[in-house]
């Protein structure tokens, strides 16, 4: 998989350098933002590649450009999300005005890159990109509104916000190879995003800093569980969320309640439900062992 | 959520659930039961591989 990351990274460099309509200032920012994402790896581009490779006899070189295009869209959404949340240390948060232009350029370049390939089914791929990107933006809006305060609405929101992006990455690869998409890939692609988002939500509660959802009065599954409890700690958190009275939060007690009162276990249970559903759907899809292994890791 | 709350307060039931056929959760699908049991088995690796 390291080799694949390298190929996607090279394609990103190629796309940035060869975009005639962008000046040096934008290209320099483009490169620096992309460099910061190398450490995380290009998971979305890899999902796209794996679902193309699985259904073709010969891999066309253009698929690396498409995988890079998918990563451009994801990076643009990451930048916009961080600018909206104001909770990140990435360099794009330093000068938001400039970063917004980079994000806009990335978005346009994502579909333009696919359009410029020689794939027979590139129009279908672009339609998927547009459809799922809009779904994700709608999910992002729901997230910002912070109104999803029960399990159903919260899961629906993360399905749109996060599940759309992982599903899109898988489906673009599949449609370029086959000209059609399958229910199984659509479903488990979506579940991967849900699983990863729930894990991210749990992780946010492990540090008592600016990214902590509870301190920011945000809702996620463990917090929804905690707020539904009837003990003194949950009552103090409810007061904090409602701004009823000046509340001093005892971080040790809250961390202990989250861990030992069932909140984290509840979130892990929901994540596990999607894991088992995803693994079941994956069994129906003919992907090579290396690809299956990679997908299974993302489902856990 | 209610099931997790109940099991948190009745840990002996979790033990019975782990020993197959000694207890079952009515209205809970097999996937949900499997998900619950795995969560109670202490799996706490929650670092996302794609978001941070």
From TrEMBL, chain A:
Tell me the organism. Lysinibacillus macroides
Cofactors, names only: Mg(2+)
A GO molecular function assigned to this protein is: prenyltransferase activity
Keyword Metal-binding in the entry? The reply is yes
Q: Which family does it belong to?
A: Belongs to the FPP/GGPP synthase family.
SUPFAM superfamilies named among the record's database cross-references = Terpenoid synthases
* Keyword terms: Magnesium, Metal-binding, Transferase
One BP term from GO: isoprenoid biosynthetic process
InterPro entries to which the protein is assigned, alphabetical: ComQ (IPR033965), Isoprenoid_synthase_dom_sf (IPR008949), Polyprenyl_synt (IPR000092)
Q: Name one Pfam family in it.
A: polyprenyl_synt
Q: What is this protein called?
A: Transcriptional regulator
Query: Is Cytoplasm among this UniProt entry's keywords?
Result: no
Q: Write the signal peptide boundaries.
A: none
From TrEMBL, chain B:
Q: Which GO terms describe its molecular function?
A: pheromone activity
Secreted as UniProt keyword? yes
Record-linked InterPro entries: Competence_ComX_Bacillus
- What are its GO biological-process terms? establishment of competence for transformation
What Pfam families is this protein classified in? ComX (PF05952)
- What is the name of the protein in this document? ComX pheromone
Q: Which organism is it from?
A: Lysinibacillus macroides
State where the protein is found.
Secreted
What UniProt keywords are attached to this protein's entry? Competence, Lipoprotein, Pheromone, Prenylation, Secreted
Its GO CC terms are: extracellular region
Q: How does it assemble?
A: Interacts directly with the sensor histidine kinase ComP and stimulates its activity.
């Amino acid at each position: 998989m390291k080799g694949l990351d390298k190929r996607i990274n090279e394609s990103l460099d190629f796309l940035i350098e060869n975009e005639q309509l962008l000046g040096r200032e934008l290209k320099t920012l483009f490169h620096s933002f992309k460099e910061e994402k190398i450490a995380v790896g290009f998971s979305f581009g890899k999902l796209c590649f794996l679902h193309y490779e699985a259904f073709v006899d010969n891999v066309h070189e253009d698929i690396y450009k498409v995988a890079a295009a998918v990563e451009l869209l994801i990076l643009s959404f990451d930048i916009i999300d961080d600018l909206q949340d104001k909770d990140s240390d990435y360099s794009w948060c330093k000068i938001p005005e400039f970063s917004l232009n980079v994000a806009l350029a990335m978005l346009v370049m994502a579909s333009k890159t696919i359009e410029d390939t020689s794939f027979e089914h590139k129009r279908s791929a672009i339609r998927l990109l547009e459809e799922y990107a809009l779904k994700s933006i709608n999910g992002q809006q729901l997230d910002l509104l912070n109104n999803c305060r029960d399990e159903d609405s919260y899961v629906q929101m993360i399905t749109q916000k996060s599940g759309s992006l992982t599903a899109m990455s898988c489906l673009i690869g599949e449609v370029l190879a086959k000209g059609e998409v399958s229910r199984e890939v659509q479903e488990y692609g979506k579940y991967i995003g849900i699983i990863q988002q729930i894990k991210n939500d749990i992780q946010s509660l492990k540090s008592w800093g600016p990214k902590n959802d509870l301190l920011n009065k945000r809702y996620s599954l463990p917090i929804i569980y905690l707020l539904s409890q009837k003990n003194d700690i949950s009552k103090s958190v409810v007061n904090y969320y409602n701004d009823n009275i000046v509340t001093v939060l005892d971080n040790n007690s809250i961390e202990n309640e989250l861990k030992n009162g069932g909140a984290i276990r509840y979130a892990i249970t929901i994540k596990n439900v999607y894991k088992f559903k995803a693994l079941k759907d994956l069994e129906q899809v003919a992907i090579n062992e290396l690809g299956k292994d990679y997908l299974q890791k993302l489902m856990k | 959520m209610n099931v997790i709350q109940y099991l948190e307060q009745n840990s002996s039931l979790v033990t019975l659930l782990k020993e197959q056929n000694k207890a079952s959760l009515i209205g809970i699908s097999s996937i949900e039961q499997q998900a619950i049991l795995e969560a109670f088995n202490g799996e706490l690796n929650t670092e996302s591989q794609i978001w941070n």
